[in-house]
């Protein structure tokens, strides 16, 4: 239960950062998707049902602060979560590079699903060209945000909780790197 | 059969879950013009945090801009710099007040030209994603704001209210891909639809034979039932009249600078 609350608290912090702080720091309408990082992390370390429910609810929460289509973020986040779950038994979930790669793949899948959900279900809307144009910048931003956040998380854990181990982040710690 | 089911169960259940989520999204598209209980709750919960953080950040930015960068100066000039700092801060503060005054005066002038009752609001947050263009403002249903109301500034159209909770509302900007504004060219009254396309707009459905020039002003036509007639949408940036086809491809630069929106006016009229 505590873990679930922490996930939702992190999603809340991400929402506030993405709506208030990051728009001030970054020019234009681009901002890194911190929740995507959380969804990928959940995909690697939570079980299908509990993680799926958390992610879907998180998506609904995000509909309140992003976009104007109820259920869209829930669908997109659930799809990304299930895709990550689909490959989790075949990969080393303790690898930091895998996490970064999955964030990149998640960004591409997210943009594709948003375009599909809008263009296919709403014939008066066409976002494919706009999303395709924005995708490279979004990929770069999400990658940089993922690297910075993961390093920061490991540093915080080593500094304040040296005896604890965050699942999936061990390989980010230099002590475990070859 | 049982073996096949056991082997493919995760995949099939995942697909069913996804399909249900997609169906739920599809069903919700029908009620898209109303704010759901959950959305009202999220707006109500995040709004105060966003408003508080917005104020803290503005305050911190002021302090940083006007004081902190002067701290590491030479010791012998300390007193002079101290007085200079205070003067700079006062001046900067005055400048900020003057700029705010200018903006509010322009809004007030604009407000007086409007026959419809208006409500000023402050922008407190932007959209959480890069794919959509919405903003959150600090006025809600308690102040009489409902979904569909137009939002404007002195320069032109900003967007329309799509979600509203008791004290906060979300505005869909005209630059969002799902936004469409019934518009016309001021010069020759050619009608069309202004659709959002990221930082720009496209002016769709203008017939090929219509004379359109770069720089022509695009205004609302009042036909959509949301925006009153005559509000500035933007200026034509490019015109592509292809050899074939019924319509021209026209790009429009919005009149409003959406990256510097701080205060807006809500036109208190219900959509028809």
N-to-C span of chain A: 36 Å
Strand content of chain B: 25-35%
The fraction of residues in strands of chain A falls at under 5%
Question: Which H/E pattern describes the elements of chain B?
Answer: HHHEEEEEEEEEEEE
Could you tell me the number of beta strands of chain B?
Answer: 12
Q: What best-fitting shape of chain A do the alpha-carbon axes yield?
A: globular
* Largest interface (CB < 8 Å): A-B, 58 and 53 residues
At CATH's second level, what is the architecture of the largest domain in chain B? Beta Barrel
Query: Which class of chain A in CATH terms?
Result: Mainly Alpha
Arithmetic mean of pLDDT of chain B: 84
Structural class of chain B: alpha+beta
Number of strands of chain A: 0
The fold-level CATH name of the largest domain in chain B is Thrombin, subunit H
In the CATH hierarchy, the architecture of chain A is Orthogonal Bundle
Low-confidence stretches of chain B: none
Spatial strand sequence of the major β-sheet of chain B? 1-2-5-4-3-12
CA-to-CA gap between the ends of chain B? 57 Å
Q: What is the overall number of helices of chain A?
A: 6
**In which range does the helix fraction of chain A lie?**
over 70%
Q: Output the radius of gyration of chain A.
A: 16 Å
């Amino acid at each position: 239960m505590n873990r679930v609350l922490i996930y939702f608290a992190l999603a809340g912090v991400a929402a506030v950062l993405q709506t208030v702080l990051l728009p001030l720091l970054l020019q234009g309408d681009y901002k890194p998707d911190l929740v995507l990082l959380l969804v990928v992390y959940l995909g690697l370390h939570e079980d299908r049902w509990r993680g799926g429910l958390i992610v879907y609810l998180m998506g609904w929460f995000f509909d309140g602060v992003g976009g104007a289509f109820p259920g869209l973020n829930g669908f997109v986040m659930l799809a990304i979560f299930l895709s990550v779950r689909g490959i989790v038994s075949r990969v080393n979930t303790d690898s930091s590079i895998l996490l970064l790669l999955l964030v990149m793949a998640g960004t591409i899948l997210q943009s594709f699903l948003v375009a599909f959900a809008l263009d296919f279900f709403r014939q008066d809307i066409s976002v494919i060209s706009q999303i395709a144009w924005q995708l490279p910048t979004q990929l770069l931003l999400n990658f940089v945000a993922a690297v910075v956040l993961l390093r920061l998380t490991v540093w915080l854990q080593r500094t304040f909780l040296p005896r604890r181990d965050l699942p999936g982040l061990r390989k980010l710690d230099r002590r475990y790197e070859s | 059969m049982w073996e096949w089911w056991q082997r493919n169960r995760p995949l099939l259940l995942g697909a069913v879950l996804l399909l249900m989520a997609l169906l739920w999204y599809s069903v919700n598209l029908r009620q898209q013009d109303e704010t759901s209980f959950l959305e009202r709750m999220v707006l109500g919960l995040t709004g105060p945090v966003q408003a508080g953080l917005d104020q803290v950040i503005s305050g911190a930015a002021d302090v940083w801009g006007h004081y902190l960068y002067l701290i590491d100066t030479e010791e012998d000039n300390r007193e002079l710099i101290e007085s200079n700092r205070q003067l700079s801060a006062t001046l900067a503060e005055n400048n900020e007040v003057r700029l705010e005054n200018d903006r509010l005066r322009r809004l007030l002038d604009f407000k007086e030209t409007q026959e419809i009752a208006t409500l000023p609001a402050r922008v407190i947050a932007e959209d959480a994603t890069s794919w959509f263009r919405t903003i959150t403002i600090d006025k809600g249903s308690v102040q009489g704001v409902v979904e569909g109301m137009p939002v404007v500034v002195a320069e032109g159209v900003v967007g329309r209210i799509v979600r509203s909770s008791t004290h906060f509302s979300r505005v869909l900007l005209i630059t969002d891909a799902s936004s469409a504004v019934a518009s016309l060219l001021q010069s020759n009254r050619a009608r069309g639809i202004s659709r959002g396309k990221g930082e720009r707009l496209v002016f769709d459905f203008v017939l090929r034979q219509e004379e359109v020039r770069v720089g022509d002003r695009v205004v609302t036509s009042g036909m959509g039932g949301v925006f009153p007639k005559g509000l500035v949408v933007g200026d034509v940036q490019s015109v592509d009249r292809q050899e074939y086809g019924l319509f021209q491809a026209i790009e429009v630069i919005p009149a409003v600078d959406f990256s510097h929106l701080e205060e807006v006016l809500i036109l208190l009229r219900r959509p028809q």
